Amino acid sequence: MTDAMPGTAVPVHLRAAGVSLVVDAVPPGLPRVLHWGRDLGDLTAESLVAFRDASTPASFSVDHTQALSVLPTGRECWPGTPGLVGQRPGPADGGSCRAPFPDLRSTGPVELLTTGPDGGGLRVSATDPEAGLALTVELSLDPFGVLRTVLSITNTGDDPYEVDALRVLLPLPPSAVEVLDLTGVWCHERSPQRSPLVHGTHLRANRRGRTGHDATLLLTAGSTGFGFRTGEVRSVHVAWSGNHEHLVERFPEGAGLDTAVIGGGEVLAPGEVVLAPGETYRTPEVFFVWSGDGLDGVSRRLHRHVRARAVHPRSARPLVLNTWEAVYFDHDLERLRTLADVAAAVGVERFVLDDGWFRHRRDDSAGLGDWYVDETVWPEGLHPLVDHVRGLGLQMGLWVEPEMVNPDSDLARAHPDWLLTPGAPLARSQQGLDLANPEAYGYVLDRLDALVGEYSLDYLKWDHNRDLHVPVHAGRPGLHAQTVAAYRLLDDLLARHPALEIESCSSGGARIDLGILARTHRIWASDTNDAVERQSIQRMTWLLLPPELVGSHIGPARAHTTGRTADLPFRAVTALFGHAGIEWDIAGCTEDELAVLACWIRLYKELRPLLHTGDVVRADLADPGALLHGVVSADGTEAVFGYARLAPTTDSYPGRVRLPGLDPARSYRIRPRYDAGRPELFGRAAPPWLREEGVVLPGTVLTEAGLPMPG
Fold first, then answer.
1. Which DSSP helix (H) or strand (E) runs through 443?
2. Crossing angle for the helix pair 333-346 and 591-611, nearest 10 degrees?
3. Quick one: pLDDT at residue 7?
4. Cα–Cα distance list, 117 to 18, 163, 381, 531 (Å)
5. If 0-12 CB within 10 Å is exposed, 13-18 middle and 19+ buried, where does residue 592 land?
6. 568 near 596, Cβ under 8 Å?
7. What does the alpha-carbon distance between residue 487 and residue 493 come to, in Å, rounded to a whole number?
8. What is the DSSP annotation of 269-304?
């Protein structure tokens, strides 16, 4: 709700889900965040004015105190990363350029957007007539306490204006003393790293042309020792699939509110965005999340935000079989029919034909861009396989990589001018395709439209297998235009086929962000199906995304990416906590293995209403070799947990483990599920609760004393 009305000189107070946002948006200054964090309760107009007057900004070593806005620049004597960087080219005679440091001032009262007890928003407009610029600032707090920010800048002058950076920055309190972000590489994505928040800038800048295997997803600043279940934290996420940055900064002027900030935005190359008179640049959405109960609180807010979006899938997430690790490029109709038969028999619901179905694609060095069924492998097209799969009652999906092209392809030979990265080193024998080129865009859209239409496809696995280091469009850096065009391509295809579902895959988990997920229906978390690797990868992917959007498959016993061997129960339980599937030649499985798969699939179908609607919880265990995570229903009446030991311990007995997220006022029947087989236990006898009938225990015991884990 808000305690301020348009036209008053009172800060705006927005509240939702235990979060308060207090914004001083009184002209002529740009909006300044006075408080973003725990709910402050009902505040009167008088107390809001007093709050503003008491919020003294830092001095930044100048004679008069300066108020830090959401778009700080040198005009405010801000010594840190500026919110706006741009330039208007100077005259040809070498004279100085006009208004190199814009003085943007709001032009009227704050415009309140929809407000109420569950959030709301505001919009502020500002101009600098001398600089020829107009700015719009949008801040909105959703019903789950997620703060969304968007900035727009318009060139109102007579000459072009180059935008080099436009980023939003919010203040951090003195209690934010540690930083957590993520890094990673192919098949080992989302590895956490923690550091103290010291003076200077902690910057995670991505210039890969896609989100990247080392993407942080969230950059979090918090109180000392914060974890999944404890601590006050503030996180930022830039919803953009091109180059972008997340940052936190602290300065030595003091421990005041305005001497540390968190924020981010798109990373633009010089000359990449040049606004003609009247043109506007709009930033990606940047989301900020506060939590008073650790990282699980951040995830809970974000998951509810994501689930409330119109694009979020509403139907049950079908159990998938993907053919990649079953057949690779060896496409044989009878072999694939047999694979589909076995899949249907164990309960699979969606069959996805991966790479290798299109012209010239006998390995990964040729054919990208030639989006026609290979007649030498499929003389009757894909109809014999598609008809067989549908006859078994399964949905049908297909792998594509529309944003890329192999130099060894009919498309590249016919249209070398369509290359996005001409002259750049090849990666996976491929280059980018310039989707900002209208002809290239039209070709790809028409081919995808034709394929989806001809085969009535339910699903596309949409891949993106290389970084885009030097993209060029129309003679200038082209990544911004490429990212916008890729989004438009997805939007246009879905407009033509509203029932189609699309997975975002990028060499595994290299394009995971809320920008791509505004028009896709799940992500592929990693190219590794090694269950040991997947335990930690999925655990950190859940920071941003709920399980139903995270593809998680059972692979063969020996993982082809790592060579590690794991037994079937462990692989099955790991894959259970997501949008589950199989990526394995199950036509070669034993009868016992198929029986376990069938039981596991029945368990997935039983639990997915809980898994895909409940709150993710993760325990902070002292034992670094063990992980405990789970999903608890919104009403606290039921939950499912997974406990995994990934490394040996020097303790002979692992002790008790608390189950997070349960309701202490309830009692629960605790019982194991052996649907995917019984794990082999070593050492001392199993605890009594591992009997199939289980035990009934109060929530207080489970959350405070915990359960003894087997050795």
1. helix 438-455
2. 60
3. 42
4. 11, 37, 56, 44
5. exposed
6. yes
7. 10
8. -TTSEEEPTT-EEEPPPEEEEEESSHHHHHHHHHHH
C-beta separation of 559 from 319 below 8 A: no
Secondary structure class of 450 (helix, strand, coil): helix
Q: Looking only at Cα atoms, what is the longest distance across the chain? A: 87
Report residue 348 as tokens. 């699979």
Determine whether 610 is exposed, middle or buried from the number of CB atoms within 10 Å of its CB (0-12, 13-18, 19+): middle
- Residue 19 has a CB neighbour count (10 Å cut-off) of 26
CA 351, CA 355: separation in Å to the nearest integer? 13
Cβ(264)–Cβ(695) below 8 Å: no
Distance CA 71, CA 287 (A): 15
Q: In sequence order, what are the residues at sequence separation of 6 or more whose Cβ sits closer than 8 angstroms to the Cβ of residue 655?
A: 708, 709
Helices and strands in the chain, H and E counts: 12, 40
d(CA 263, CA 249): 9
The tens digit of pLDDT for each residue in 377-402 reads 999 999 999 999 999 999 999 999 99
Structure token pair of residue 406: 């192999």
Residue reference for tokens 């199950």:
586
Tokens in use for 379?
């003389």
pLDDT for position 255: 47
- The residue ranges of the chain whose pLDDT is under 50 are 1-8, 255-257
What whole-number distance in Å separates Cα of residue 26 and Cα of residue 540?
40
Query: What is the DSSP-derived secondary structure letter of residue 390?
Result: H
Closest C-alpha among 521, 691, 541 to residue 616: 541
| Complete edge-to-edge strand list for the sheet that includes strand 626-632 | 615-618, 626-632, 639-645
The whole-angstrom separation of Cα 102 and Cα 628 is 52
Give pLDDT, residue 305: 98
What pLDDT does 684 receive? 59
Q: 353 - beta bridge partners? A: 398
Report the C-alpha gap between 585 and 392 in whole angstroms.
18
Compute the distance between CA of residue 504 and CA of residue 682 in angstroms, rounded to an integer.
Answer: 41
10 and 51 in contact (C-beta within 8 Å)? no
Are 286 and 266 in contact by the 8 Å Cβ rule? The answer is: no
Name the residue with tokens 């906590």.
Answer: 577
* Residue 149 bridge partners (DSSP): 139, 286
Phi-psi region of 55 (alpha: psi -120 to 50; beta: other; left: phi over 0): beta
For residue 476, give the 3-state DSSP assignment. Answer: strand
Q: Are 511 and 518 in contact (CB under 8 A)?
A: no
Selection from 634, 709, 644 nearest residue 670 by Cα: 709
Is the CB of residue 493 less than 8 Å from the CB of residue 520?
no
Contact 209, 479 (CB under 8 A): yes
Mapped onto helix, strand or coil, the DSSP state of residue 369 is coil
Residue 64 has what pLDDT? 64
What do you get for the CA distance between the two ends of the chain, in Å? 52
Query: What is d(CA 88, CA 322) in angstroms, rounded to the nearest whole number?
Result: 52
Q: How many CA atoms lie within 13 A of 556 on its CB side?
A: 18
| Cβ burial 626-635 (10 Å sphere, 16+ → b, else e) | bbbbbbbbee
Under 8 Å between Cβ of 187 and 527: yes
Catalytic residue set:
463, 527
Q: Is there a contact between 497 and 434 (Cβ–Cβ < 8 Å)?
A: no
Predicted pLDDT at 191: 97
Collapse the DSSP code of 522 into the 3-class scheme (helix H, G, I; strand E, B; otherwise coil) and give the result.
Answer: strand
- Look at the block and give the residue holding tokens 């009938």: 693
Count of Cβ atoms closer than 10 Å to residue 495 Cβ: 8
